[in-house]
Amino acid sequence: MAKDWLPACISDPEGCELLTQSICRAADLSRPPYRHAFLPSEQLGDSWIGRLEVRSQDGQRQPALDLELEIYGAAADPSLQLSWCEDEERPLLWQGRHPVWMDGTSGQACPRPDDGIPLETLARRLRAELVQG
Questions:
Q1: Exposed (0-12), middle (13-18) or buried (19+): which is 98, by Cβ within 10 Å?
Q2: What pLDDT digit, counting tens, does each position of 32-74 carry?
Q3: What is the pLDDT of residue 45?
Q4: What is the mean pLDDT of the chain?
Q5: Cα–Cα distance between 57 and 68 in angstroms, integer?
Q6: For 55-60, which contacts have Cβ atoms below 8 Å and span 24 or more sequence positions?
Q7: Radius of gyration for the chain, computed over Cα atoms and rounded to the nearest angstrom
Q8: What is the DSSP string of 57-103?
Q9: At 110, phi and psi to the nearest 5?
Q10: Whole-model pTM?
Q11: Coil, strand or helix: which one is 49?
């Protein structure tokens, strides 16, 4: 990772590419059989926001499965938030040291949805790659 813990694509294109590849690899492993592309939309030294776009094995876009990913916090203790791009009312996942599911409308804690395990797996994988000791 870059010195500023999260790279800025303008000043550190190589670090940006490495982080993007890590995000996509973790998503591909966590949500088979889909393939993922990460499109950053906001980048600061301590946060990244972007869209994880999903394609089927044969390359067909699956926009209903797209996720917004926010990475923020500190290198030693990063936090992630995953939410559905197409349905803001679906529960979203906040992942720090533990996963917390929140109602997409109220922000109140809620139970993990039936299809939540792959998102928790993705968040754990990404956080493990991001933690810098």
A1: exposed
A2: 999 999 999 988 778 999 999 999 999 999 999 999 999 999 8
A3: 73
A4: 92
A5: 21
A6: 57/33, 59/35
A7: 14
A8: TTS-B-GGG-EEEEEEEETTEEEEEEEESS-TTS-EEEESSSEEEE-
A9: -145, 165
A10: 0.92
A11: strand
